[in-house]
## 1
Amino acid sequence: MELWLVRHGLTDANQEGRLQGQIDYPLNEEGRKQAFLLAERCQGTRFAFCLSSPLLRTRQTAQIIHEVAGCPPPLYTSLLLEYHWGIIQGMTKEQLKRCYPGLAARLDKDFHRTPIPGAEGLPRLFQRVKRFCQWLERLEQLQAPEKPVLVVSHGRFLHALMLVIFPCDFQQSWPFPMDNASLSVLEENFNGRTRLKLFNDCCHIKE
């Protein structure tokens, strides 16, 4: 199976540096343009499925790709939702420091291991990622193996997915950040190993 991983286009919250989480921010004008350019890049590719998070910014990105590139209509699953940031969801770094200075200081020292009240928590996030991988395995039985699967999701979820596929110590390092409207391509070969063919490619939106 070949996976085409897409992070949604830009939002105003991205530009403001907010922890968007599961708040339903829409794409802004630039984000819609990015999604359109990415969709043009996907033209000519015959996807088996298009899977998307149900949040607005991912729905809009997936719908633009569907309309422009002619990929299958998006199938929405909560497994692809962005990480829930609990009490700091929707905040900028400055707001976090003002509202929760102690928590902000702990996050500055150890971002990946500091507990956040009300947050999803990394163990639950990785459980959700693994359930998504199991779901993909079942989908693979329904599609021709030569057709790729398009996955439209969010920065932290896609990052966690990469950490599951290419095991890293998530409590120490998150080395796979993805930009808005970026494309990454993974290929599982005949011996069950996964190859990273393309990572965080944004050439379609570069001048």
## 2
Amino acid sequence: MAVVFRPVGPLPPGAYWFRRLLVLALVVIIALVVWWVFVRDSGDADLAGADPQPSATDTPSPTPTTSPKPTKTQTTAPTAPLCDDEGDDKDLAVTVTTNEPTYAAGQEPTFTLSVENISDAKCRRDVGPRALELWVSSGGSKIWSSDDCSPGGAVDERTLLPGDSFEQTVQWSRVVSEPDCPTPQDQAPAGDYQVVARNLEIISDPAVFTLE
């Protein structure tokens, strides 16, 4: 033991003590380094084994609920009753007008025939060529009829709502006509005339005009 504490050698004793302190300090440093590495690894292992705390982003967001869309209610507009297929005389009004009261020589009159639904129900009515007629008379004698040269024709049924009307315009060339449309046709003389319109069995009031 005396040898350990009493340095032996050619160097001064202080040199040997310095060496021993240097070695001791190195050993202490190595021990501290080993301990620090061991403690750190142990702490990391503990953290790795711990259950992670749920974060705000890990919290599942509530699933949005979809409200059922309201179901549309099917509504049907009330259907107006139909009057007779051909309409009654009380359901329809037939009228005729002229575009001028007096026509100069060579001027051709224009007639407008109208079939109006005057009832409060919709009506189905034939307004085709076979169902319509215009005729011109003077002094009680027939002068011209639209059916003389264009008899018959197709059926054209229209549904007229209350207040609706069907109109047709016809120009008269001031000729005198006969059934089957024989030619030549004479010109109607100057004088007072009246025109009447017909739709099936309904006949209008006359419209009066003058040819010069």
## 3
Amino acid sequence: MRRILFLAFDRMQLLDLVGPADVFDAATRALGAAPGIDTAQALEVARRRLDDQTGYRVLVATPDGQPVRAASGVQIGADAAFDDLPADGIDTIMVSGGLFVDEALEDGRLVATLRRLAPAARRTASVCSGALVLAAAGLLDGRRATAHWAAGRTLKERHPDVRLQPDRIFVRDGSVLTSAGVTAGMDLALALVEEDHGPEVARIVAR
């Protein structure tokens, strides 16, 4: 079971987290033919993948381990505090963005946690202006990347070594992935599901 860690913070863009999280949940259900997945394709996948450890476990961490409130006002619960996260056992790190990402950057704990955890993770990804967090942690130095169109100029001004590709839905450069605006995070998550479990499972999830 692959552990997907979302690093959340106050006034983040809600869909940056719940969109990709629902993609990973749907993939886990498709792989196990859980309730809510009732197609011949899903059942065939389940026959081939009977291991109940197949799929994803989504975890949410916040600076203090307390709930945070998204920009929309919706409260998001937490599984752990940043400081309590182990440096190993995480498959994929996902960093959200939003209009208030600079507040999270000023806090400092988000960037410090990302720097500590990213080297041991198989891959690290951002949604929307979360690319600014990856860049602040040094993960985008010399790499190709994209971001929400409104964050592109800021990203380039602050981090001129980033090879910005503003017209892409998502960009992968080695083990680091970035995506454009909020719904592009779901496209990115689908691409990760396809990488892990093949195009058939990704098509089931997309449907």
## 4
Amino acid sequence: MEKFVCQIGAWKALPDISSSTQIFAVGDVHGQAQALAATLDAIGEVPRCASHRCLIFLGDLIDRGPDSLAVIDLVETAKARSCVDDVIILPGNHELMLLDALDDPMMFMGDWLDNGGDAVIQEALPNSNVIKLAAFAEIALSAIPPWFLDRMRTGPTWHQEGSLLFVHAGLNPHTETMKFLTQVRTGVYGTDHWAWIREPFLDWTGGWGPERRWRVVHGHTPAIQVLTNQDLFAQKADQLLTHGRLCLDAGAALDIPQIAWAEFHEKNYRLNLIRTQL
């Protein structure tokens, strides 16, 4: 069992008022179950400062890492473990690839396996010598809880609290916001999508939303690709003042046992990091 440390960042002022809700947002997990357990415990220890506490997962809970199935189990118990009133699970591109693979194995299973789904299959059926794509779908369906698949198919794809928009990958500044956010979730393999976009989102400095006052909290693109500390991570991840966005992807997709999470309340926020001990 690895030991993890929790590094809490200093409170900073939000450019705009967010919400009276005490919000916790967790970035990409990618099968790092031990790091997620430590994250949920750390959130649970944060004192309640509002009548309502909400936990938001930004997607990419699964694939690449060693324990995606354990991550799903942890998410199912996250409400009690982190002492929150609501849990919102947004889909990332990896969850969408999984759905496509299950719906049409001949067309999409290879893409999911090549992008980290093979780790999930290995968890579900170690040393498997299955070679038929349809059989991979059967293995995944038998291992992944139906509630999780249903949530990824029918649950929200983004969430807004005050001036804060939570979404997996980001927005396209050249597309009307609601049109962009309401794109279908499956059968889409392209960069111009809320679960896939990188540019021009990452470099845009012209503001977000109808009045260009929204702040986007996202994952998908690692802000850092090495095991690090909170200060160095924040230097890369916190672009709220310059770009109107905060990245909570700490590189778990690279098999780094490290997860970023943030807390928001009224006019303040802080960026935090859970990582294995060096």
